[in-house]
Specification:
CATH architecture: Roll
Strand content: over 45%
Number of strands: 5
CATH class: Alpha Beta
Distance between the termini: 35 Å
Largest sheet: 3 strands, antiparallel
Helix content: 10-25%
Number of domains: 1
């Protein structure tokens, strides 16, 4: 998020959490959105700079992730907002078992 002004707020999404992502994010958690899943804590980043940075962020995340809209619960604001998140693509989801 280098070079962007903005704020971070604790939030929750409904997703399945995988402890290790893929590609450049290997070793970092990855998620697959699932409205029936337990809440997963996340940090919501808000910035007026985001629209001009999406291409750079998409390139950074790489082919193992896709940017998708998500409903985010923001407890401190007592509201739900729509935001963007990078979700693991189906081919990158670790096999279970």
């Amino acid at each position: 998020m280098e070079g962007m002004d903005g704020t971070w707020t604790p939030a929750l999404i409904r997703a399945r959490l995988y402890p290790s992502g893929v590609g450049r994010a290997e070793g970092y958690p990855g998620v697959v959105l699932d409205p029936a899943a337990d809440p997963v804590p996340v940090q919501l980043f808000a910035s007026a700079d985001l629209p001009e940075q999406w291409d750079r962020l998409d390139d950074f995340e790489g082919p193992g992730y896709r940017r998708v809209p998500v409903q985010v619960e923001v407890p401190v604001e007592e509201e739900t907002v729509t935001a963007w998140i990078y979700e693991l693509v189906p081919e990158a989801v670790p096999a279970e078992g």
